[in-house]
Amino acid sequence: MNRDIYWIPAAGFGIESLHLIEDSAGVDAESVVVSSINGESFRVRYEIECDRHYRVQRVSVSTLGRESKSISLRADREGNWTDGQGETVSRLNGCTDVDISVTPFTNTLPIRRLELDQSESTEIETVYISVPDLRVETASQKYICLDPLDEDGGRYRYESISSGFKAELPIDSDGLVIDYPELFDRVYPTE
């Protein structure tokens, strides 16, 4: 797979441009998001590397601008995390996925990794990265398979156990969100 995907926020203005490559070596996602939150404009770039089974190996997020800042994290297959200097970040241990607040792409990671069957559900612990402040914390989430992923796509219910937020996510055949009610709309490709 070698795809470009564009999402816009459901309210306000902005756009995300994601370039996604999946091959025998793994999954590489690179994206730029330009938008605003509570009247504060921001530009951010993120990269996520996963193995072939969508297990996160590396994530980096950088704000773009005069006062740019960045974070970089690495994960092993056992749920252990280190920062950009190789120091252990023990408060993140046990997290299996990453969730970046300004993109629907990070929902693809557990959807593809878990490969849930009809009506199957699971709870996961994620590394949640808030943009634009790049605050890092853990979050408990639940995914419920409503329609399993196949050549026509699928549907999942996402639940944030931490906040109580819930959304039904239609996805395409690659597990990418088509519509994220009240948050994001995919504008290209529209199928």
Can you give me a brief rundown of this structure?
By secondary structure, the protein is mainly beta.
Polypeptide structure, described:
- This protein has one domain.
- It has one helix and 14 strands.
- It starts with a strand and ends with a strand.
Estimate percent helicity. Answer: under 10%
Domains (count): 1
Summarize the main sheet.
9 strands, antiparallel
Provide the gyration radius in Å: 16 Å
Q: Give the DSSP E fraction (strand runs of 2 or more residues).
A: over 45%
Unreliable parts: none
The H/E string reads EEEEEEEEHEEEEEE
Multimer state: single chain
What would the average pLDDT be, to the nearest integer? 96
> What's the total count of β strands?
14
Lateral strand order in the biggest sheet: 7-6-5-4-3-2-1-14-13
Q: Notable features of this structure?
A:
4% helix, 9-stranded antiparallel sheet, 191 residues, 5-stranded mixed sheet, mainly beta, 57% strand, single chain
Secondary-structure map with pairings?
Blueprint: E1 2-9, E2 14-23, E3 26-37, E4 40-50, E5 56-63, E6 70-75, E7 81-83, E8 97-100, H1 108-114, E9 121-130, E10 135-150, E11 153-160, E12 166-171, E13 179-180, E14 184-188
Parallel strand pairs: 8-9
Antiparallel strand pairs: 1-2, 1-14, 2-3, 3-4, 4-5, 5-6, 6-7, 9-10, 10-11, 11-12, 13-14
